[in-house]
Amino acid sequence: MAQELKIISLTMPLKLGRVNCYLVDTGSGFVLIDTGGSNARRELEAALSEAGCKPGDLKLIVITHGDFDHTGNAAYLRGMYGGKIAMHPDDVGMAEFGDMFWNRKSGNRLIRFLAPVLFKFSRINRFRPDISLRDGDTLGNYGFEATVLSIPGHSKGSIGILTGAGDLLCGDLLDNTQKPALNSIMDDLPAAQTSVEKLSRMNIHTVYPGHGIPFAWDDFMKTYSTP
Questions:
Q1: Does pLDDT of 73 surpass 70?
Q2: Rounded CA gap, 106 and 6, in Å?
Q3: Residues pairing with 163 in the sheet
């Protein structure tokens, strides 16, 4: 059976836009890439139900990076649907301690001060993952023919998922809220540029970003330039 990829677009807190999750129907269960924020839990559950994903059907929850708008429903889904949580170890502390700046550089002081107030990651939503994902790991054991790629930049533990068909689920390395571009929020810009160079050597057709609509990889590369 062909693997079906469903885009789930969820509302972010404070009307700050939307964030994408991706649900893969493997034919023997489902794999969810990212989970949105806890504010959009009802939206997410409605989308899962519409896709035919019921408790017990969700086999794996993949987290592309540790920010609250991607991890907010992971603990809840593990408890309700039974799926194991998988992410890169370099972002684990974000989910475990509810700290988006864990293992990141110093960053903007104002953002560091406001983030815990505006985007509080409550204890009930914190978690430790069940599975540690690293560059080159495959998800075939869960019925999903895809490879894990380490693509740091937005965070140290950012990963992408590249399918055999050339679809790249890139988390927040790239976005397409206005046009295909490198995400404007970067913890380590040189690392992000190295990640793009790495991806440029791979057979990628369509990019599915954490924010914005899918786009052709070639369209991004036509306008991308290293500062």
A1: yes
A2: 36
A3: 146
pLDDT at residue 112 greater than cutoff 70: no
Write the CB contacts of 51 (distance below 8 Å, at least 6 apart in sequence): 6, 23, 25, 30
Helix (H), strand (E) counts: the chain: 7, 13
Q: Which of 68, 65, 67, 72 is nearest to 43 (CA)?
A: 72
* Best CA proximity match to 96, nearest among 131, 66, 62: 66
Q: What are phi and psi of 208, to 5 degrees?
A: -115, 100
Tell me the whole-structure pTM to 2 decimals: 0.95
Cα diameter, the chain? 50
In this predicted structure, what is the pLDDT of residue 108?
58
Look at residues 29, 90, 62 and name the one whose alpha carbon lies nearest to residue 170: 62
- In eight-state DSSP terms, residue 222 is H
CA distance 225 to 191: 15
Separation CA 101–CA 119 (nearest Å): 12
Contacts of 11 (CB under 8 A, 6+ apart): 18, 39, 40, 43
Domains and CATH numbers, the chain: 4-223 (3.60.15.10)
- List, for residues 147-184, the tens digit of each pLDDT value: 999 999 999 999 999 999 999 999 999 999 999 999 99
